[in-house]
Amino acid sequence: KAGVTQTPRYLIKTRGQQVTLSCSPISGHRSVSWYQQTPGQGLQFLFEYFSETQRNKGNFPGRFSGRQFSNSRSEMNVSTLELGDSALYLCASSQSGDGYNEQFFGPGTRLTVL
Amino acid sequence: DQQVKQNSPSLSVQEGRISILNCDYTNSMFDYFLWYKKYPAEGPTFLISISSIKDKNEDGRFTVFLNKSAKHLSLHIVPSQPGDSAVYFCAASLNAGGTSYGKLTFGQGTILTVHP
User: Fold this and answer.
1) Interchain contact, B104 vs A45, CB within 8 Å
2) Do residues B82 and B15 make contact, with C-beta atoms less than 8 angstroms apart?
3) Which of A36, A54, A102 is the best residue to mutate to test the B interface, defined by the most B CB atoms within 10 Å of its own CB?
4) Which residue blocks in A15-112 are alpha helix, DSSP H?
5) Closest-CA residue of chain A to B2
């Protein structure tokens, strides 16, 4: 089975721009979660999607949004980029997203905001 | 508030010896715990998990112990190998629907170095 894939792997943007990141989950997995990893804050939960619906959201501003398509692929969008948005963005998939499922991570997208 | 803590930023071990990585949590509602390994420029790789109804789970060289009364879990790697050198994260989840869906709460990680 193919693992979780994320595109692009690296992005460089300037302040004020917007960015869209893509994630393809493991086949058969319907839940996709997104995380932000920074040196200071560690791995922080952004949001989770299941069957095209956002079921849970972490403590991030509204500039961070996402969506999920009928094939379970997911995108996240960050608008009006700030320097502090520079981070590794990880997506993870699981079968159902409930608390007893392991999550499997993609390689991440490294976003640099200049 | 940091609900999952890994108090040791780093650990150095000789090849063939045991590595013990520790993790503490404060939220007694957590009922599922996981360990991940992460190499630079890669996503975390799932290692092993344990449900709160158990106190031990083994998978090959990896064993996770859970002490619910102390809100403490540990990962034992025996024997340690140089390829185990990576950052190890413990994570916790709870199965309560709503604001727990798809959410893992991570510790800050411990850098394990295994010397040949």
Assistant:
1) yes
2) yes
3) A102
4) none
5) A41
Which of the residues B89, B90, B104, B111 would you substitute to probe the A interface, choosing the one with the greatest number of A C-beta atoms within 10 Å? B104
Nearest to A108 by CA among A18, A38, A16, A60: A38
- In this complex, do A103 and B107 lie within 8 Å of one another by their Cβ atoms? no
- Sequence-ordered list of residues with C-beta below 8 angstroms from that of B31, at least 6 positions apart, any chain: A99, B51, B52, B93, B94, B95
Q: A98: which chain B residues are within 8 Å (Cβ-Cβ)?
A: 95, 97, 101
Inter-chain contact B32–A32, Cβ cutoff 8 Å?
A: no
Per residue of chain A (114 residues), give pLDDT as tens: 789 999 999 999 999 999 999 999 999 999 999 999 998 888 999 999 999 999 999 999 999 999 999 999 999 999 999 999 999 999 999 998 777 789 999 999 999 999
DSSP β-bridge partners for residue A13: A113
B75: three-class secondary structure by DSSP: strand
Task: Please state, in angstroms and rounded to a whole number, the distance separating the CA atoms of residues A1 and A100.
Answer: 21
Tens of pLDDT, residues B87-103: 999 999 988 777 788 89
Residues of B whose CB is below 8 A from A32: 102
Give the contacts of A40 (CB within 8 A, at least 6 positions apart): none
Mean local confidence (pLDDT), B46-61: 96
